[in-house]
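re: ur question from the group chat, yeah i did fold both. here u go
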Amino acid sequence: MINMARLEACLKKVSKPARYIGGELGSVEKDFKSQDVTFALCFPDVYEVGMSHLGLQILYFLTNQVEGYLCERAFAPWPDMEKEMRKAGLPLFSLESKEDLRSFDIVGFTLQYELSYTNILNMLDLANIPVFSRDRGEEDPLIIAGGPCAVNPEPLADFIDLFILGEGEEVNLELFKVYRDMKASPDFSKEKFLRRAAEIEGIYVPSFYEVTYDERGRVASRKSLVPEAKETIKRRRVHDVNQMFYNDRQILPFIETVHDRAVLEMFRGCTQGCRFCQAGMIYRPIREKSPEKLMEIADQLLKNTGYNEISLMSLSSCDYSGLVGLVQALMAKYEKQKTGVSLPSLRLDSFMVDVLKEIEKVRKSGLTFAPEAGSQRLRDVINKGVTEEDLYQVSRAVFDEGWSRIKLYYMIGLPTETLEDVMGISHMAHKVKDIFFNRPKEDIVGNFKVTASASCFVPKPFTPFQWVAQDSIDNFFEKIYQVKGSITDPKIKFQYHDPYVSRIEGILARGDRKLSALLYRAWEKGQVFDGWTEFFSYDTWVEALEETGLDGDFYARRVRNKEEVLPWDFIDIGVKKDYLWKEYERALQGTLTSDCRKGCNRCGIENCEMWGVDFEAKTRI
């Protein structure tokens, strides 16, 4: 255990000390020294962000339910706390037992966002754990990582001992069992364990592979160095979501977090087929929980947390086949308790209004819709499958129901995009405002505001756009300023993501092993919390690129061809590369691909159960 007197002294000097004290209602405390496997689950961002992540809560309770396994949490300390910890000689510690991370058997990081990678290096250093895997000895913990960004693990290959590719509910426990069984052996070594772990489906050990590059810097070959290292790593997924582990409780923070509510996961996967969306590809096939199971989980969650709001969460929550019935059942059961239901994002169709009528029985919240692109041509390119008229019809309907605030999400820099496409963002926002005010005066209620929010498009691995060039920073700003300059109405707000941040994200997203040097140099130069505006420094990243001899345009601005070996090609997510290329070609032609619920598009995924769903009625036949 760390020195508690020093910790208490640090806590008196920092903002939000509750980030570091633990002891929250719902947290699990076990005797650290008597456990067979000790696992530090680390979120490489601030406490308020990490505690809002459902995956962290699932793995936390999943691990702790097993006798002999202990899972404790650690988060990236805010810079004020890091400063005090380094000054006091305090290593990074877990919240529950206050043990330093170096005392754990396994230290795991969740990879949610590329701009958190430097935080991983910083957390290892703060824990007195060598940053590079090659420098760690038998006395150091095993460093593992998983999460959506692990589908391209190569930029972190020099730092992580083992990656878990896919959904962790099953594979995590398999890995821990192997560790527990082997740990008891007198001749246990990390090398032997990693060899055994490499045989588990979904496990990738980067040190067991050698990668070579051609004269242009592209991946030329990849060779396994040990017989246990498979040529292809198959991403793990849970097949029966009704039988898998689920959270019937959540840890209740002492301070407000980003999402402060009960979270109910309705299904995994998505059938929309948006060509920019990595999650929509890697989480296939769609797997729904039954309404009965969801009602059971909701009841337990609300009883165990005391929350008065439950969020229905999935990649595309409005596509749950029994959504109307589920919302009606939840409202009928909890309306008298003033427990509200929320949806993170809404589909642009008339069916959505029926759901909103149920939700508003307890409280009205802001509405968020995602047209994604400013023109129909570009929405067809990205396979969005909605029209302007869809937005306008839904807007009329929700305004008539009493809503007066709407957020619209877009992306700028999409493939084939023109200035004319981008200006559609302004046009649509003004049209929504006109719809609100061009109604009878007696119907105009509330303080109207429409917010158009634009992110800068970042091409991601395992999407049809994994081959395209990212827009340049100058082009991003030209398009942003065009839209911004066209909006002068105070009822319309336009906000946008920083193109400089998106540029670095674009470099890291499609990077290879050579980027480990970039990450290390950027961290050496002080880069942490790169996803936070106040800490991000583009100039520092440019310097790090120059000092490591790497070309940012090679990763972000270069078009790949069909034959190129991509750094992540050794991973099998289930969706075939040929299908992604076909979708890329259809995008360039502006050709739509139908929702999977309307018929199989033969993406290659196994165990897909989308047959037998009536898409229009949102019910299972």
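okk and heres the other one u asked abt
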Amino acid sequence: MNKVRRIFVEKKADYSIKAKELQSEIRNYLNINVDDVRVLIRYDIENLSDDTYAKALVTVFSEPPVDNVYEEEFPHNANDFCFTVEYLPGQFDQRADSAEQCVKLLCDSEEPIIKSATTYIISGKLNEEQHQAIVKHCVNPVDSRRADGPKPETLEEHFDEPADVTTFNGFKDMDETQLKELYNSLGLAMTFADFKHIQHYFHDEEHRDPTMTEIRVLDTYWSDHCRHTTFATELTNITFDEGHYRPLLENAFKQYLADHKEQYEGRNDKYVCLMDIGTLAGKRLKKAGILDDQEPSDEINACSIVVPVVIDGNKEEWLINFKNETHNHPTEIEPFGGAATCLGGCIRDPLSGRTYVYQAMRVTGAADPTKPLDQTLAGKLPQRKIVTTAAHGYSSYGNQIGLATGLVNEIYHPNYVAKRMEIGAVIAAAPRRAVKRLTSDPGDIIILLGGRTGRDGIGGATGASKSHTTKSLTTCGAEVQKGNAPTERKIQRLFRREEVSSIIKKCNDFGAGGVSVAIGELADGLGVALKRD
């Protein structure tokens, strides 16, 4: 029962689209002449009875009309170059997760463990340098590694008992040199000035040293992703370069300054920043009574307006939500997951607002993807790899969740070689009567609802807020989340049911900030008993 079985699934020649695409890339992009390319999906399977395994072989793991299945070994020539790629430990493997769920439909009393990987077979007269070039093209070190070793004895994972949470002894009394050394060792997104501010707080107010958890939570809360530090930075010296639009921009800015002065008359806590420039127009419209269709709420993170809708001759109030999100950094270092979760992240905010997402838009920016491979900047993925893989990631997530994208537009400019632009936007709707905007009160039931993922995504908010270097590809991989579109689709459909959405008092998505930030946006604080049954 506990024996690990290994199978390889390969598309038959007429259906081997991925293999043909890879062969074309190797020939035309890497300039390596190969005779043939084969791509096989490898599954390692444990805890399955013989009967369930036999059924799953031709229903879950393969489709007999289009797939060939090989057990334990696969046929190939002695001179073929073969290598296998798997996700890094802790990365969410959606293929394996879906396979486990499907196998349980065949027999719900069994608890299968499944791991997946991809095996490549390259035929042709190749040297070692060409081997390495092909491997580098197929393996992104951010989330994957080669896995050419023998089959494991077991797939069960055993983890050491975690150590007690570290307390930074002496933190509040450290001199600047010691504090700087600690700061550099932690890889934080916050600035050293922020770190010194925390030290002053614990010295003057708490009179104790902080724990690692407290520092990490503050780093997440204060990250540019969550607190929008860049957009909230005071602008004191604004000039306009010469150009055709200079008069127009200068006049618009003068009007903004006049509106800013009137809007915040008598207040000295409001200053000029990108956040205020972006939101002042809405505040002015609201003050003038023009923006009366906006839904006021301290909960939802998507823009929400109220519109009249006629259904079967009856006029109803509906909520329309708009949301956009950028995933520039994640898509730069892990294009598939970064672009996929850009769309998934857009969906999460209207979803937590209990509206149903039905349309999307994608706008991206890239440098020239047709440039030769040898012109790739050090520490960067090739532009072609980013462009094509990101497109696959976005479309994969959209197709799985069932979301149409009406506009896809990619802008090419040499400045995007520094960092890609990846923007997703969605629109959603729900009847207003089904959505409650209430406060959370003591005694309320708290439900954490979602699907299984890996350790990927932890530190996403801080990771997206750091300055990045040529080492980011190898040090920031875990910060890019792997999406779980089928689970998000299930939650969308659950929340679409009025009897469900109408009993939710308040809701928030975890996003890159995780549990700590989600809690802070729902209540002043929560007491969580992790050991309670």
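fwiw on the second one: The first strand starts at residue 5 and ends at 11. Confidence is low (pLDDT under 50) at residues 460-466, 470-477. idk if thats what u expected
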